[in-house]
Design goal:
The protein has strands at residues 2-3, 12-17, 23-30, 33-36, 42-47, 54-61, 64-68, 70-74, 82-88, 91-94, 105-109, 113-119, 122-133, 138-145, 148-159, 164-171, 174-177. With 180 residues, the chain is mainly β.
């Protein structure tokens, strides 16, 4: 999937699982190559409820994501919680053309989630954070393990103020900041 620079000001999405009603269950997004040449507002993979839809048992794995401002977004501040979501074994290279990577994230968790595992991903590029949680995040269980990254970033992992996580496990993450 290729997204090119068309000067569109709304968010462009490579793969979106974003229902507003009903339910989505048992979905795998695997082994895709997603490339963006438009780094203004581009999101590779999004998984979130826009209103009352229930989302559970989602696996995002083995994807090669290049050139997006956000790699994978799970949860939405005003939607229902996504439960049992795995983001594993992805190659995610994020970038920005603005020079300041304020809203550039490898994996972004802005809203309610049940259980989410972010494991064994490889990040690179220029980012504010490779893994970022918004202050509106509520999570039952959040597992961050065996992720690695190298590039220019402010935070490898950033759990922001007011993020509400009941069970947090963080182990074997390795981030190397590039010198400028």
């Amino acid at each position: 999937i290729w997204i090119t620079n068309d000067n569109q000001t709304t968010t462009k999405v490579g793969i979106g699982i974003n229902p507003s009603k009903g339910s989505v269950n048992n979905v795998t997004v695997a082994n895709n190559v997603l490339v963006s040449t438009d780094t203004n507002i581009a999101l590779a993979i999004s998984v979130y409820s826009l209103a009352t839809a229930a989302i559970s048992n989602i696996l995002v794995t083995g994807n090669n994501i290049q050139g997006f401002t956000q790699g994978v977004k799970v949860g939405f501040a005003s939607g229902q919680a996504c439960d049992n979501v795995g983001v594993t074994n992805n190659l995610i290279k994020v970038t920005t053309t603005t020079g300041t990577p304020t809203n550039v994230f490898g994996v972004y968790l802005p809203g309610p989630v049940g259980t989410v595992s972010i494991e064994s991903n490889k990040f690179s590029g220029t980012a504010a954070s490779f893994i970022y949680t918004e202050s509106t995040l509520t999570a039952t269980t959040l597992r961050l393990s065996n992720n690695s990254g190298a590039g220019t970033f402010t935070n490898g992992i950033n759990l922001t103020t007011n993020s509400n996580v009941t069970n947090l496990a963080m182990d074997n993450n390795d981030f190397v900041l590039a010198t400028t």
